[in-house]
């Protein structure tokens, strides 16, 4: 399972989130991870956009999570699909996630 964070379509961090694991059907797994990445190189225009957003009280990041899902179709037959989840997350000037982004359901699709 991999996680990536983007600011205006530019990746600003990524990390491996979790090793393969078994999850019972119809359950939820909470992930707790720290995203990191190389120092972001941005143009002065992009930095100005970031600072303007921060000055307005929020910066919107896009969080992408990608994982391979393996599931049983019959007693002996398994299938794999890649799951993609994408969510916009609003962060306040102090670095905390804003209430509008908490407990939010994000779109998921499979390839």
Summarize the structure.
This is Late embryogenesis abundant protein LEA-2 subgroup domain-containing protein. The chain has 111 residues and is mostly beta strands.
Commentary on this structure:
- This protein is mainly β.
- The chain is built from one helix and five strands.
- Strand 1 and strand 2 form a beta hairpin.
- The protein starts with a strand and ends with a strand.
- The mean pLDDT is 87.
Question: What's the layout of helices and strands?
Answer:
Layout lengths: L1 E6 L2 E7 L27 H12 L3 E14 L5 E14 L16 E3 L1
Report mean pLDDT, rounded to a whole number: 87
Q: Judging from the principal axes of the Cα atoms, what is the shape?
A: elongated
Rg calculated over all Cα atoms: 17 Å
Query: In total, how many beta strands?
Result: 5
How far the N terminus sits from the C terminus, by CA atoms, comes to 15 Å
* Distinct helical segment count: 1
Largest sheet: 5 strands, antiparallel
Subcellular location: Membrane
Organism: Acer negundo (Box elder)
Protein name: Late embryogenesis abundant protein LEA-2 subgroup domain-containing protein
Membrane topology: Single-pass membrane protein
Descriptive terms for the model:
5-stranded antiparallel sheet, 1 helix, 111 residues, 5 strands, mainly beta
């Amino acid at each position: 399972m991999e996680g990536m964070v983007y600011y205006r379509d530019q990746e600003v961090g990524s990390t491996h989130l979790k090793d393969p694991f078994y999850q019972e059907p119809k359950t939820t797994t909470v992930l707790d991870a720290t995203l990191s990445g190389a120092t972001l190189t941005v143009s002065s225009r992009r930095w100005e956009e970031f600072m303007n957003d921060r000055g307005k009280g929020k910066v919107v990041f896009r969080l992408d999570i990608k994982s391979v899902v393996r599931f049983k179709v019959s007693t002996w037959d398994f299938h794999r699909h890649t799951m993609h989840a994408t969510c916009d997350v609003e962060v306040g000037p102090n670095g905390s996630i804003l209430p509008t982004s908490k407990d939010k359901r994000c779109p998921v699709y499979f390839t």
